[in-house]
Write a structure and sequence with these properties.
Keywords: Cytoplasm, Ribosome biogenesis. By secondary structure, the chain is an alpha+beta fold. The protein has a single domain, classed as K homology (KH) domain (GMP Synthetase, Chain A, domain 3). Helices cover 55% and strands 18% of the residues. It has four helices and three strands. A three-stranded mixed sheet has the order 1-2-3. A hairpin with a 5-residue loop joins strand 1 and strand 2. The termini are far apart.
């Protein structure tokens, strides 16, 4: 129970730091439009899934961003080690956040229902 609060705090800190590292340290143009939306940590803080979103919906941009993020994982871990005061930096796994697209799809469906009900 108490561990959940700690993992939530660490996840928020990791999210903030990775966003900062993306903006200030990573020079790869493939991650220019990447935004970290969430971080989920395991209870023992050994694994972190970092969810990201892109401004572009193109599949090729998504693949390029995923490749660039995977390539920069070492940089993220070393920077996190310098910035954070936890014993071990978790292993990072990047995953595209589908919730933004899902929310847009739901919004579109709801607008479609509203349009039909106006007839």
């Amino acid at each position: 129970m108490g561990n959940s609060f700690r993992s939530d705090r660490v996840a928020v800190e990791i999210q903030r730091e990775i966003n900062d590292i993306l903006r200030n340290k990573v020079r790869d143009p493939r991650v220019q439009d990447v935004n970290i939306t969430d971080v989920q940590l395991t209870g023992d803080l050994s694994q972190a899934t970092v969810y990201y979103s892109l401004l572009s919906n193109l599949a090729s941009d998504n693949e390029k961003a995923a490749t660039a993020l995977k390539k920069a994982t070492g940089l993220f871990k070393s920077e996190l080690a310098k910035r954070m005061t936890i014993f071990k930096i978790p292993d990072l796994t990047f995953a595209k956040d589908e919730s933004v697209e899902y929310g847009s799809k739901i919004d579109e469906l709801l607008r479609g229902l509203n349009d039909k009900s106006e007839y």
